[in-house]
Amino acid sequence: MIRFADVTKVYPGGTTAVGGLSFVAPTGKITVLVGPSGCGKTTSLRMINRMIEPTSGTIEIDGRDTSTLEPNELRRGIGYVIQSGGLFPHRTILDNIATVPQLLGWDRRRARAVASELLERVGLAPELGRRYPNQLSGGQQQRVGVARALAADPPVMLMDEPFSAVDPVVRDQLQQEFLRLQAELGKTIVFVTHDIDEAVKLGDQVAVLRVGGTLAQLAGPADLLADPADDFVADFLGRDRGYRALAFQAAPDLPVTPEPAVPLGADAESARRAACGGWVLVVDGARAPLGWVRPAHLAGVVTRDDLHRGGTVAPVGGTLRAALDAALSSPSRRGVLVDDDGRLVGTVRAQDVLAEIEREPVGEAP
Ligand code: ADP
């Protein structure tokens, strides 16, 4: 557990970057610091590993005042990931990952073995280990940055905008993989971002800071969206809060209607017979949904070119947001639900999702 107690940082020149910050980052959880540029996020993060010394107040890790610890000793238990990976350009990927273990005096073989294992763990092919950072994409470099921070298996990870420098698709993948990794590793993580969507997606708890480095609100993502503390937090959260909050509500009991579906290659006549409301769902050999077709527009058999692919697919028992989006994005207005293996289970209508939403208003769920 990391505890900030009335921590301030006034830089030489007089800027108060952090103004009396108190909060706890619980063990094994992701705490996100979010807020507008200049609100003291990076300063707060770097005070944890003493790259920056607080002006006043105390920061404790597991009950130990960090100001009493020797900085190098302190940093051994703290992984640090920054934007763009911060890799050493003249070292191979494997040597980059093995940096901290080697500093700790591990023998080269053990350090490299751990580095190879981590390379795989963050989703990179073993042969990338021999390359240099500039031979990797931004997303791959970012993964290496995470692997390097994990190499000495520190209980605490500090992450400063680690996914900001990559495009939105890669960013989404990195976020998903980061959550998967954290579910396995259970590190105590403090994560800085200026992006509120990233904050609510990744945080077990989210600390919203205002300029001057004071805490505007500390809450779980669902509570933050449902009940912003003031206008500043509400403005910072932005639009579509009601819709976004649905991502935190599970929908175990939605009524699922069986959906007749046809395989690729089905003839127009059987597609017409299976159609409902002018649309029929097409599945592959494993009954995974591929898209919708309008049999009335078919020339011959159903081909991939005939597919309307606009609809999203939601997992059964997933969130209300995913189910509602599946219904709203489906050209037939029937939202496609699949099981864990991606196979068609049936469809759900927006009105049924809305009925479920009204049954359990936001903020009143048990
Ligand atoms: P954020 O990470 O939220 O963008 P920072 O912690 O980087 O905010 O900065 C907070 C405030 O402190 C800003 O006003 C910034 O200009 C100022 N600041 C940051 N680093 C220094 C420094 N080394 N010297 C003086 N002022 C600084």
Walk me through this protein's architecture.
The chain is α/β, with parallel strands linked by helices and 366 residues long. The chain has two domains: 2-248, Rossmann fold (3-Layer(aba) Sandwich); 261-359, CBS-domain. The protein is built from 14 helices and 16 strands. The protein has a six-stranded mixed β-sheet with strand order 6-7-8-3-9-10, sandwiched between helices. The chain has a four-stranded antiparallel β-sheet with strand order 2-1-4-5, with helices on one face. It has a three-stranded mixed β-sheet with strand order 11-12-13. Helix 5 crosses helix 6 (138-150) and helix 13 packs antiparallel against helix 14 (350-359). The longest helix has 18 residues, at 168-185. The chain is globular and about 75 Å long. The two termini are 27 Å apart. The model has no long low-confidence stretch (mean pLDDT 93). Adenosine-5'-diphosphate (ADP) binds at residues 11, 13, 15, 17, 35, 37-43.
Q: What distinguishing features does this structure have?
A:
6-stranded mixed beta sheet; binds adenosine-5'-diphosphate; alpha/beta; Rossmann fold; 33% helix; 366 residues; CBS-domain; 14 helices; single chain
